[in-house]
């Protein structure tokens, strides 16, 4: 047995070292990306560009968290936007009503989101795919209706009025636009890095197995319900982070943050960028925001233009942009090796 265990350890050693190398590579890429983004204010005074990056940070966290469900687990959620809105409202209300430091409000918001997601997820992940999608949508509509009807607490259809206090902490003043920009970039990079580690971990490969064949995963001893619930809660936490970034950006929270169209935008972003590559949702986020900002300057019929874009990706490429590029490079590489 000792010899067998030693042989097994020798076989696993290259895989473990490769995984460790991949982690270090991901951390290095994350540090470089943050350095590039953080230095952007030094080279440009464009407030519009910094605002665009902040919006990309909020929606990028939201869309990538949705891809943990859609791309890695095979769970298409039509109500994932409820956690984006929950993060924005919980953070804003904690700051307005309690006046606690921002890091405390941040952690408290994540705790609230985790609790709500655990309750909702425990119900939804037991359902088949189509029922899962529509029940999550039903929960989002319930939360949106609660926001509208509880006007004395949430502000109703006017949203949270009076702004969100931004007291300085640890020398960081989020009332300063540059500080807010750098903090948003830091949250984006940390969130993406954490989700990347989840996707590349043994748990991430368990999710892929559940996506491909949940029955076989169950036969192999995997607790499918627990794995789905875990990733549901994790995805909710990262979506909530995106909501907090958006709340800080607009200094408030509005019912539109929890409306079903937010979930639709998340699905659209993943369709644009691709779900089989990790950075596909980030590419889709940039594309969608660029399309919205560009099209609305020239026409009020931006919905028609976005519909044409959806048809192009759905019927033309039949995959997201980054998925298409990755597949094209793989084909070129295989063709080169065949020669």
Features:
about 350 residues; mainly alpha
Tell me what you see in this structure.
The protein is mainly alpha-helical. It has a domain at 26-39 and 47-256. It is 79% helix and 0% strand. The chain has 15 helices and no strands. It has helices spanning 2-38, 40-43, 47-73, 81-97, 102-124, 129-149, 151-154, 177-200, 202-212, 214-219, 224-250, 260-273, 280-298, 302-317, 321-338. The longest helix has 37 residues, at 2-38. The chain is globular. The chain starts with a helix and ends with a helix. The model has no long low-confidence stretch (mean pLDDT 89). One of its GO terms (cellular component) is plasma membrane. Keywords: Cell membrane, Membrane, Transmembrane, Transmembrane helix.
Which overall shape is indicated by the principal axes computed on the Cα atoms? Answer: globular
Number of strands: 0
Low-confidence stretches are none
Distance between the termini: 46 Å
> Number of helix segments?
15
Pfam family, one: BPD_transp_2
Keywords: Cell membrane, Membrane, Transmembrane, Transmembrane helix
GO molecular function: branched-chain amino acid transmembrane transporter activity
Transmembrane segments: 27-46, 52-70, 102-123, 130-153, 178-199, 229-254, 266-291, 298-317
List the helices and strands and how they pair.
Layout: H1 2-38, H2 40-43, H3 47-73, H4 81-97, H5 102-124, H6 129-149, H7 151-154, H8 177-200, H9 202-212, H10 214-219, H11 224-250, H12 260-273, H13 280-298, H14 302-317, H15 321-338
Membrane topology: Multi-pass membrane protein
Transmembrane segments: 27-46, 52-70, 102-123, 130-153, 178-199, 229-254, 266-291, 298-317
Protein name: Amino acid/amide ABC transporter membrane protein 2 (HAAT family)
